[in-house]
Every structure is written in structure tokens, then in C-alpha cells.
Specification:
The complex is a heterodimer of chains A (377) and B (286).
Chain A (H helix, E strand, L loop, with lengths): L1 E2 L1 H10 L7 E4 L2 H11 L3 E5 L12 E4 L2 H12 L2 E2 L2 E2 L3 E5 L3 E12 L4 E7 L6 H7 L4 E5 L8 H10 L7 H17 L2 E12 L4 E3 L2 E5 L8 H4 L9 H8 L3 E4 L4 E5 L2 H13 L6 E4 L6 H12 L6 E8 L4 H14 L6 E7 L2 H8 L5 E2 L3 H13 L1
Parallel strand pairs in A: 15-17, 17-18, 18-19
Antiparallel strand pairs in A: 1-13, 2-7, 3-4, 3-7, 5-6, 8-9, 8-11, 9-10, 11-12, 11-13, 14-16
Helix pairs in contact in A: 2-3, 5-6, 10-11, 11-12
Chain B lengths: L10 E4 L4 H13 L3 E5 L7 E2 L4 E4 L2 H8 L3 E4 L3 H13 L4 E4 L6 H11 L5 E3 L5 E4 L3 E4 L8 E8 L3 H12 L4 E6 L10 H10 L5 E7 L4 H12 L4 E6 L23 H10 L3 E2 L6 H4 L1
Parallel strand pairs in B: 1-2, 1-5, 2-4, 5-6, 6-7, 10-11, 10-12, 12-13, 13-14
Antiparallel strand pairs in B: 3-4, 8-9, 8-11
Helix pairs in contact in B: 3-4, 6-7, 7-8
Classes of the chains: A alpha+beta (377), B alpha/beta (286).
Chain lengths: 377, 286
């Protein structure tokens, strides 16, 4: 789960990381008021969960509160990469001397957290990593011992930070590490970490990603979920415990198991079709869950055929068949369906579906070919 | 021979009184696996499956009483890391964690602890390990694989069943099937399993089933080209997965240009692994 800049920075501040003064506004008037209270120049920043906000005109420097009003009005009317801007952060503008990068994330291959620093901040760090990897200093952190002082010093020295700032840098690095650990982040990043003209370090922008699997112990963070980044059907699916991702094709898929769901999409493509979605109904799915899944698939107007591929292990094929029949009673549809049931209670499942005029298939390849043919009719 | 589990496996089930734990214990027993005890804290002294299997409060006590050497874990995600550490601390040789949804930072700390001990963890978020005709530890359906000489290793669940089923339909048997799980950080990876299959005399051929996310398949390809003499066939799921989206499994995500199916397929082909276009093609590549 992605957190907005203003929430990430608020969390950073709780861990002793200095951030600019600022507040969130949802109207131009509020933005003006915040700018007035702070005095001086301010920066009006759109709060949307996509990169490239600055390039899209979603970040503006305001010299006066009136300008803050005007920019907030403009920005609050914008859509950035398809996402509506609902909030702006009005931050105190700072005089910047230099922009650094500091972040901590999970290194999958090393099975450890890694902290990274770079003297090239304020730009996309993945681009720096590709263009000049030597400019990113990395330090793996022992997940039990945590970040050590010498490691923070190594990072500071590695990016040629002036010695006078090492102590403050160490405080920020430790704060970032603690914010990452205590909030179960998979990424906590300050970009840029700014050196101001009066030689202070300041986290001007921040980003956190939280491990979805750990949200059970962070109910406060779950409340920050921004539903704008998900399609309505994806939100509906999550309510039913389904894993669903909308795609652009015309063949809807309902599968049990994530790997098999991906494979079903792949094989549709292999035989010349385009999948309309990824959908995993999970293990041991009930009839209700299956019915909800089918409703969600059919709510996509692009869907011209549906492929149901169920390999019964824990999941019982007869229950899946029952769910399909339940859903068809509620949803009136003439979209053709191709059903493949294999494994636990497959025969019972197929018998249940006999009257429903559905095409069946024995192999995955056969099911995919039939679905592609049905969609192209 | 086989790897990880066999007829000498004396299995303990953590979370045996839960719905899933009980359901699968019954299936494992029916398959012929020697399930010697179960653990549910607070329910020590009870018995399950008509008084056949005793329940204990802790792994340590259960091991002492019943001589278990392998544990399978069905406890809910918030308690899974604790259950793994408890099993390791009690001296289990092999731990198989089925639980899905374990926080990744928990797994980093668990992995760090296990790496300093002589214990093997399979999973989490995995279907378990099946040695046909000898032992079924986890949730892989027992009726879709026959005994034979093909070693199967996979990051997925039902996709693995699909491959086992395709092999069985052509009377091709399996030495051991290992589901290593779909999480970004797990106990046993492709390389660990490939090493075991390479050393196992019963295994003559290997099937590797990968998916998008991370670089495990690329590292496996490198290992195969250096150390594996047995023929390997593979399938990689997720060619059509959009970048930046997590495809069900916590570890199945294309991020910052890494984790792409195409790169994995290329790396495997370079290591002379035959890569199938779809899972039903695998038997013909062996």
C-alpha cells in the first residue's frame, strides 16, 4: 500500500526527521490561509500516488498567499495520469543548496534490508541506478541488529557529505530505519533530502510503501488507503477476499491460485486472445465467493467471453459450479462461458452445469482456444 | 530415495485444531504420512481424528513425547513467524510453512535466525512437499502424482498441480514435488532444491516452475549451467502481467524493470533449459 507524501513525512517527523513546516488543504481558501500563517514563499504540491507530479504541473512555487490560492485552485482541478487531485500540501519553501537521496528497502536477493544514499537526489533514483550505479552507495542492514552508527557514517562519507553534517545525517538515517521497521514498510524514502543554504538537512519529499501482509498490526495506517488508485471493481473484489486486477482485453478469467491465474492469462494470449483481468478466487472458495467473482468479471463491459479454470485441490469443483449457477440467476448475461473443472469433485461439478449450456474443456490449451474463438465470434 | 520428506518422516502439525490444519491432517494421514502429533497452545491433552493423534501445548513437549522430526505449519499469518521459530528452537529438522500472508520483515528476521542453525524451512505461502507413495506434507492433492524419477520444484500452488496432473496423464512419475512458495523471502529457494535433486539418485530429470518477480529464476539458471547435470525443463508464469501490479502472490511483481518473465525465460534457455510455452507442454520436453 502506497502512502501519500504528506502522510509519509508526518510519520518521518515522528521519528525525528526534520521536515518543512506545512499543512494539507482541500480548498484554495485553506491553501491561502496556510500560506498566510507560515509567511514567506510556499510550495503547493498535489497529493496523488503517481510519479512525475512536477512535470505534470502538479507542484508550484507561490510567492504570495494569493498565488498559493490560485495554484491550489489550478492543481485541485487537475487529473494527473488519470488520478484526480483531492488534496494539496502547502509547504514552506526552502532555499536549496544541494539535493541528496536517502532510502531503505527490502533487498529480495540478499534477504535483508538495504539502505541507499546518493549525492544525486531529486531525480528518479531508478534512473540513477541504471545510468551511473556507482553514484548510489548501498549498505545492507542486519534485520536483527538494526542500523549501526558506522553504517550511517559510511553512507555519509560515501556521498561526500561535508563532515559538519554527519551527525544530523546519522539522526535522519536512524529515524528512517526506525520508521521503516516499526511501520512494516517495504520502502521508506526521502527524495530529495535537501541541504539548505544555511547548512541544515531537511526531508523535502517523502514516500513510504507498507507491506499489505502486515496491515493487520497497523490499523491506523490502513485508514490512509487511497481508493482512487484502484478500479471500483478491484475494491469490490477485495471486500470479497478475491484478488482481482483489471486489464484491457476481452476474455474474462476466473481461476483458483495466483500462479495458475497468471498462466491462464498467458495461454489466452498465446492462442491469440487478450485477457480482461487477473482473478484468483483463492483456496477453498465458497459458492458466494464464486458468484461475486463472476459478477465482477461481467461488470466489465469489454468482456466478450469468460474462461473458468478450476483445479480442485482444497477447492471443490461442485461448490464452484453451484456459485456459477447462483450468479447466473442474478446476472442476466449472454456472454459465452467456457468451463474447465479438474480435480476434487470435478464430475459432480460438470453434472451441475450440464443444463446451463456452457462449453466445457478437458485441457488448459483446449479451454483457451475455445475462449478465444468465442470472443472473436 | 527422494528429498525432504519420505517414509521416515515423523510429522507434527502446528495449528492442528484449526479448520485447515484438521482438514489437511486427515488428508495427510489418509495418504499414509506418519503424523505423530499436533500442537495448539492451550489445547494440550486433547486428541484429534477420533483419538488417533495427540495434541500438545508446545513443539518441544510434542517432540519429546512423540519423536517428531518434521513440522508442518497451518497457523494464521500473524503467528506464523513465532511458530517457525518455535519449531526451529525445538530441533525440528525440516519445517514446512503453508501459511499465506506472513509479513516480509518477519520473514527477514526468521530467515536470519534459521541461517545460523542446521534447519530447513520450506515456504511460507507454499503448498508443501509431496514424495509420491511415501509422504505428503502440506496440501498438494495426493492423487495427482505417481512415483517416478522427475523432481518438481515450483513457486506456485495450483499451477504445480496442473503440471503434476499433466505428467500423471502420460504415466510420468515424480520423485519429490517441492512447493517453495510465492513470497519474496522464503526458506528454501530454487538453488537449494536443485542441489538436493542433483544429489538424489532417484531423481533423473527436473521440472522448474517459476513466475514473475525477483531474480530467483535467473540465479537458478546460472546455478544450473554450472552445477546441474540432469536435464531441466521449465515454465515461467506471468508473460502477460502488467508491471507494478502484484499478481496475487506477494512476490509476483515486476518492479523497476526486474522480475520480467522474458528475462527469466532468456536466462533459463541460455542455461540449456527447455522452456515450455504452456504447462501442458512440459511432459513433451522431458
Amino acid at each position: 500500500m502506497k502512502l501519500h507524501e504528506y502522510i509519509s513525512k508526518r510519520i518521518f517527523a515522528e521519528y525525528g526527521i526534520p521536515i518543512p513546516g506545512g499543512k494539507v488543504a482541500v480548498t484554495p481558501n485553506e491553501a491561502k490561509q496556510i500560506a498566510e500563517e507560515m509567511g514567506g514563499r510556499s510550495i503547493v504540491k498535489s497529493q496523488v500516488l503517481v510519479g512525475g507530479r512536477g512535470k505534470a504541473g502538479g507542484i508550484r512555487l507561490a510567492d504570495t498567499p494569493e498565488e498559493a490560492y490560485k495554484y491550489a485552485q489550478d492543481i485541485l482541478n487537475m487529473e494527473i495520469k488519470g488520478l484526480p487531485v483531492r488534496k494539496v500540501l502547502v509547504d514552506q519553501a526552502v532555499d536549496i543548496q544541494d539535493e541528496l537521496y536517502l532510502g531503505v528497502t527490502n533487498d529480495r536477493a540478499a534477504r535483508k534490508p538495504v539502505m541507499m544514499a546518493s549525492a544525486e537526489g531529486g531525480v528518479n533514483i531508478e534512473e540513477v541506478a541504471q545510468r551511473s550505479p556507482e553514484k548510489i552507495i548501498q549498505c545492507h542492514i542486519d534485520p536483527v541488529m538494526g542500523l549501526q552508527n558506522y553504517q550511517a557514517r559510511d553512507l555519509a562519507a560515501g556521498i561526500d557529505l561535508s563532515r559538519g553534517l554527519w551527525r544530523d545525517f546519522g539522526t535522519i538515517a536512524h529515524g528512517l530505519w526506525e520508521a521503516y521497521v516499526e511501520n512494516d514498510a517495504t520502502l521508506a524514502e526521502i527524495n530529495p533530502l535537501v541541504i539548505t543554504k544555511d547548512q541544515k538537512l531537511l526531508a523535502v519529499d517523502g514516500k513510504m510503501l507498507i507491506d499489505d501482509n502486515a496491515l493487520f498490526r497497523h490499523p491506523d495506517i490502513e485508514e490512509y488507503r487511497d481508493l482512487d488508485v484502484e478500479a471500483e471493481s478491484e475494491i469490490e473484489a477485495r471486500k470479497h477476499g478475491l484478488s482481482y486486477i483489471k486489464l484491457d482485453g476481452d476474455i474474462g478469467c476466473m481461476v483458483n491460485g495466483a500462479g495458475l491465474a497468471m498462466t491462464t492469462m498467458d495461454i489466452i494470449k498465446l492462442f491469440g486472445g487478450e485477457p480482461a483481468n487477473f482473478l484468483d478466487i483463492g483456496g477453498g472458495a465458497s459458492a458466494e465467493k464464486v458468484a461475486a467473482a463472476l459478477r465482477i468479471i461481467l461488470s466489465d463491459q469489454n468482456v466478450k467471453a469468460v474462461l473458468l479454470n478450476i483445479f480442485g485441490g482444497i477447492t471443490r469443483c461442485d461448490l464452484v459450479a453451484k456459485g456459477i449457477l447462483d450468479a447466473l440467476q442474478e446476472v442476466d448475461t449472454d456472454v459465452p462461458m467456457i468451463v474447465r473443472l479438474v480435480g476434487t469433485n470435478a464430475r459432480e461439478g460438470r453434472e451441475l452445469l450440464e443444463d446451463a449450456e456452457m462449453e466445457t474443456a478437458d485441457t488448459l490449451a483446449e479451454a483457451a482456444k475455445k475462449a478465444v474463438a468465442a470472443a472473436n465470434k | 530415495m527422494s528429498i525432504l520428506v519420505d517414509k521416515d518422516t515423523r510429522l507434527l502439525v502446528q495449528g492442528i485444531t484449526g479448520e485447515e490444519g484438521l482438514f489437511h491432517t486427515e488428508k495427510m494421514v489418509a495418504y499414509g504420512t506418519e503424523v505423530v502429533s499436533g500442537v495448539t497452545p492451550g489445547k494440550g491433552g486433547e486428541w484429534v481424528l477420533d483419538g488417533k493423534i495427540p495434541v500438545f501445548d508446545s513443539v518441544k513437549i510434542a517432540k519429546k513425547a512423540t519423536g517428531a522430526n518434521t513440522s508442518v505449519i497451518f497457523v494464521p499469518a500473524p503467528f506464523a513467524a513465532d511458530a517457525i521459530l518455535e519449531a526451529a528452537d525445538a530441533g525440528m529438522e525440516t519445517i514446512v510453512c503453508i501459511t499465506e500472508g506472513v509479513p516480509v520483515q518477519d520473514m527477514m528476521r526468521v530467515r536470519y535466525y534459521l541461517d545460523q542453525r542446521n534447519v530447513r524451512l520450506v515456504g511460507p505461502n507454499c503448498p508443501g512437499v509431496l514424495t509420491p507413495g511415501e509422504a505428503k506434507v502440506g496440501i498438494i492433492p495426493g492423487n495427482i502424482a505417481i512415483r517416478g524419477n522427475v523432481g518438481v520444484v515450483s513457486r506456485s500452488g495450483t499451477l504445480t498441480y496442473e503440471v503434476l496432473y499433466a505428467l500423471q496423464n502420460l504415466d510420468i512419475g515424480v520423485s519429490t514435488c517441492v512447493g517453495i512458495g510465492g513470497d519474496p523471502i522464503n526458506g528454501t529457494d530454487f538453488i537449494d532444491t536443485l542441489r538436493m535433486f542433483e544429489e538424489d539418485p532417484q531423481t533423473e530429470k527436473i521440472v522448474l516452475i517459476g513466475e514473475i518477480g525477483g531474480t530467483d529464476e535467473e540465479e537458478a539458471a546460472d546455478y544450473i549451467s554450472k552445477y546441474v547435470t540432469k536435464p531441466v525443463a521449465a515454465f515461467v508464469a506471468g508473460r502477460t502481467a502488467p508491471p507494478g501490479k502484484r499478481m496475487g502472490h506477494a512476490g509476483a511483481i515486476v518492479q523497476g524493470g526486474t522480475g520480467l518473465a522474458e528475462d527469466k525465460i532468456k536466462a533459463l534457455e541460455k542455461a540449456h533449459v527447455k522452456v515450455a510455452k504452456h504447462p501442458e507442454e512440459i511432459p513433451s520436453l522431458l
